[in-house]
Specification:
single chain, 2 domains, mainly alpha, two-stranded parallel sheet, 11 strands, 750 residues, globular, 62% helix
Length: 750
């Protein structure tokens, strides 16, 4: 495995030859699996026409352009898996950026035209056309695709539960995941009006990591599929396929070993955080409830590969343009992505100044490009807001799973809990310490890049707090990066050591990892919350088991015994991370969508959805709507402050709302920066709140005039669970256009 030469197709393919028919059969079986996973969205409620058109849209406007661009800049030798998995990351950035002018202008077809035009130019220009045509694409072994595809099945239970909890065939009075309306509202905004204001509060300029919502808007607007189907069905299904392939492809590129791909895919979907407490802390980079996370992974993997191949001088000229594109895309899709890369570049640059200065200039250049990309994204996408993320050891420790487990009543319990959490986050990275024993890998910046990103992900959990605990996404985002470090280390050990020693390490690590992860709880019983004596006993028992495994590996090894001990420890904690989270891969079946009473906190009635859809179909995309419902709990008084995560009208009507909720905005983070205050604070413009609710409760001529002339309100969405006037009181100022159970819709007169 070379650190300087390009990967070759031959080096990634083992010498074992299989019958010729195995390759098409294996590839066909994987294709059937992918089609089945996508078809599941149709079975789960998405229209079959919408599913077909959305799939064709992604193939034509994300995958095809991404593959073309990737083949222009990647090393000459490569594989179709790389072109597909990492090309998807490039193509998704192209598609979502094209959606910005399309949304601003209200031209649904424009994004597809822009992306295909760029693709056409690349295929028309001789230099780039020749690169696309002559890029070598060797076949990976026949077993590669089926093994990577099998890892996708591990996430099927998670997908099933998500589909059940977030229906499309609306049973009455359903309670969705609390963030689903928020994400749908953002998708609607990017589809219909572009990144101008928050759709649930007209007064606030949009400052959020909205790139994934722009991508979903592009898919929905171009294909004509319903946006809630794209968000709640299509997006999770696509990520279920794309993320394992992207991580596996990056692993093959960085290690030059075909087997590294399936191993990386397995670890990225299955390796959680090793701990001694039986705590099921699973941090997959595919969480249906977070559409911003999954889409950022192929971008992040492609970004890392571009950086490393530039360092190795195997990337084609002009790759820096794609580096900038990916750095911007990853940062705008998930704010935690590109900062991790910058941290990795910082560590790599520092170590290369000490060990191998030939890389220093290249690292510095890439660091400047990534920093510039993040600065641009912060200024234009986040509007300068940190969204409530703030530095503070005490606040951060209290929000970690270790801090909550051990209690937060004392400094000792908080900080030890946070430290235990950080140790868990680094589960997949421990084995990377072995690379320090090999000079050529100490002097290669790639491992330092991956290690720095992983360490930064763990450190962020220890140092930062967020109203919605979102600092945890730094750790989740770092998980696939640490997986790459783990498989790179395994590849080095397989190359450097006799097969017998590698087998010995694995034979020691597997039982030791299982015993260290599950043994303490089985022996001593589960830990009582905040019981420090229980925690110490469990932790000590697990540590003794791991140290015993290290000692055994040292005794049985024939060379580099200390490194063998570290390798056994690293492999054991990975096995433990897999074992302790196995039940998350096979969760107990959950009941279908929970039906609740209409006035239950967070309940969304079928009539409300129908009313919002009616409003969408009978209004202009720029019309402004007002609503009298602002709180997650209908009984709460918004004047005194409440959980304002209510974005139902904005989401399903696809229209701008004058004032529905106000959380998740930069202003809410400024007004309530501590803990979860930004979620529960009162709206800061009480006059506007009074005008909004006052008119719906007791309409008046002055209020009607102000709403029309100063706020451009055209529609009134009246929820009967909140104070409201009858039709007669509205009659002088508005005309009732539609009535649904518990909802009236009025149109204000000019």
């Amino acid at each position: 495995m070379s650190t300087t030469e390009s990967a070759t197709a031959e080096s990634a393919t083992p010498s074992l030859s299989l019958p010729g028919w195995t390759r098409p059969v294996a590839q066909g079986a994987t294709l059937v699996l992918v089609v089945a996973l996508l078809a599941w969205t149709g079975v789960a409620g998405m229209s079959w026409t919408g599913l077909l058109l959305a799939t064709l849209t992604v193939v034509a406007t994300t995958l095809l352009p991404g593959v073309v661009v990737w083949r222009v800049v990647r090393p000459r030798h490569g594989w179709w898996a790389e072109d597909i998995g990492l090309g998807f990351g490039v193509g998704s950035v192209m598609a979502l950026l094209a959606q910005v002018p399309a949304g601003l202008l209200g031209l649904h077809w424009l994004s597809a035209v822009l992306v295909l035009a760029v693709t056409g130019v690349l295929l028309a220009v001789p230099v780039t056309r020749d690169r696309v045509r002559t890029a070598e694409t060797a076949a990976l072994p026949a077993w590669w695709w089926p093994l990577v595809g099998t890892t996708m099945l591990a996430l099927v239970p998670q997908q099933r539960d998500y589909f059940r909890a977030n229906p499309l065939d609306w049973v009455d009075n359903t309670r969705l995941h609390i963030d689903s309306p928020l994400h749908l509202a953002l998708v609607s905004q990017l589809s219909e009006r572009g990144p101008t204001t928050f759709p649930w509060v007209q007064s606030e300029a949009l400052g959020y990591h909205w790139f994934s919502h722009a991508w979903m808007a592009q898919v929905g607007a171009t294909s004509g599929a319903e946006l809630d189907s794209v968000l709640l069905r299509f997006m999770p299904a696509v990520m279920l396929v794309v993320v394992p392939v992207a991580v596996a492809a990056a692993a093959v590129r960085l290690t030059d070993r075909a087997w590294a791909g399936p191993v990386a895919a397995l670890l990225v979907v299955g390796c959680g955080q090793m701990n001694a407490f039986g705590a099921d802390i699973f941090r997959r980079p595919i969480i249906p409830e977070s559409p911003t996370l999954g889409l950022s992974v192929p971008m992040l993997m492609a970004l890392l590969v571009v950086i490393v191949t530039r360092w190795r001088r195997t990337a084609m000229p002009g790759a820096w343009v794609v580096l900038v594109l990916l750095a911007v895309g990853a940062a705008g899709t998930k704010g935690s992505a590109t900062p991790l890369v910058i941290a990795g570049l910082g560590l790599a640059g520092l170590m290369m100044l000490l060990l191998n200065r030939q890389y220093a200039a290249r690292i510095f250049a890439d660091g400047c490009l990534c920093v510039a990309a993040v600065v641009v994204v912060i200024a234009t996408v986040f509007r300068g807001s940190g969204a409530g993320l703030h530095f503070g050891f005490a606040d951060a420790a209290a929000q970690t799973w270790g801090g909550r487990l051990l209690g937060t009543d004392t400094v000792w319990s908080r900080e030890i809990g946070a430290l235990v959490t950080v140790m868990g986050v680094l589960t997949a990275a421990v084995i990377g310490l072995c690379l320090l024993a090999f000079r050529r890998w100490r002097e290669d910046p790639a491992p330092w890049l991956l290690a720095g990103a992983g360490i930064a992900g763990a450190a962020a959990v220890f140092c930062f707090a967020h109203p919605g605990n979102s600092q945890g996404y730094f750790a989740i985002q770092a998980a696939p990066v640490m997986v790459l470090l783990a498989v790179l280390t395994l590849a080095v050990l397989v190359d450097e050591w006799p097969l017998r020693q590698v087998a010995t390490i694995l034979l020691v690590a597997v039982p030791i990892g299982l015993l260290a992860a599950r043994g303490p709880v089985m022996l001593l019983g589960p830990m009582k919350r905040a019981d420090h004596s229980d925690a110490f006993a469990l932790f000590a028992t697990s540590t003794v088991v791991l140290l015993a495994g290290v000692g055994l590996a040292v005794l049985l090894s024939t060379q580099q015994r200390l490194v063998a001990g570290v390798a056994a420890l690293g492999a054991a904690v990975i096995v433990g991370g897999l074992a302790i989270n196995w039940q998350h891969l096979q969760p107990a079946p959950k009941p279908d969508t929970i039906k609740v009473e209409r006035d239950t906190d967070g309940a969304i009635s079928r009539a409300t959805i129908r009313a919002a859809r009616w409003l969408r179909d009978h209004s202009d995309r720029n019309d402004v709507v007002m609503s009298n419902r602002h709180c997650y709990a209908p009984a709460d008084d918004p004047v005194d402050g409440c959980d304002s995560r209510r974005m139902v009208v904005a989401g399903w009507s696809e229209r701008q709302v004058l004032l529905e909720g106000w959380t998740a905005t930069p202003r809410s983070a400024e007004e309530g920066p501590e803990g979860r205050d930004s979620i529960t604070i009162a709206y800061w413009n009480l006059d506007l709140l009074a005008l909004n609710d006052g008119f719906i409760a007791a309409p008046s001529a002055d209020a009607a005039r102000e709403l029309r002339e100063e706020h451009d309100v055209r529609w009134v969405f009246v929820d009967h669970l909140r104070p409201h006037a009858d039709e007669a009181a509205f009659a002088p100022y508005a005309t009732k256009r539609a009535t649904f159970r518990g909802v009236d819709i009025y149109e204000l007169r000019d």
